[in-house]
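Morning. Coffee machine broken again, so started the prediction first thing and wrote up yesterday's gels while waiting. Chain of 227 residues, entered below exactly as on the submission form.
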Amino acid sequence: MTTPTFPDATLLALDNRPVTGSDLLFLQQWYDLTVPETCYLLGITLLRWQELTREVGQPVGDPGVALLVWALLRFPEAQYLPTFPDPAEVYPLYEAMAAQSTRTLAAKRRGRLGKTAFGLLLGREATSAGRWLSPTHSRSAGPSVRRLLFAFRNVLLAHGVPGLETWVQRVGVEAAARQLNLAQMTSWFRMPGHSNPRRPKPSSAGPPRPRGRPKRRVPVNPDESAS
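Came back before lunch.
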């Protein structure tokens, strides 16, 4: 979740009217949240969310939820969920810790903790960091990765290099449980040199069909075709 810029008070005009179901939907869209995430934000169940947003033009039935929605839309300091970072925000911290660590993914130079390892340490491809950190055509990380980045950053800030090495060790445990070799893998879903087996073609119950077009008999003369 990113911290949004807060809407102009005149946009919602909440000072002179009650919070309605449409304001709950606006809050969800403004924070770029899924419905379950919005339910967590407001501390309500999915069933309660459906009840409160069924009549979008009516005042919200729960006054506590109404006050919470008003506060979240009106006051930036009321926002209490964490801001999940982008990979570019966490990578410099990781890079500094990796430079001090003697831990590697493999004995060879390519196994050093760098950009390639960054994607693998976050449960993604070895090439993911290149896409996230590209200065010209960067791609944003998904919601689950950004939440993991939040945890990863806090571990590094709290525990430094030992925290990074503990993280790498745990990644190795998860890789081994999936029969992957952390020293060789470039993806959590395939190993180099291992191709996916092709699906066998379904057997046909009928006789094999002849190849090519069937030959057509061309009559020699019109009389022959008429006979």
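The two ends are 84 Å apart (CA to CA). Going to sketch it on the whiteboard this afternoon.
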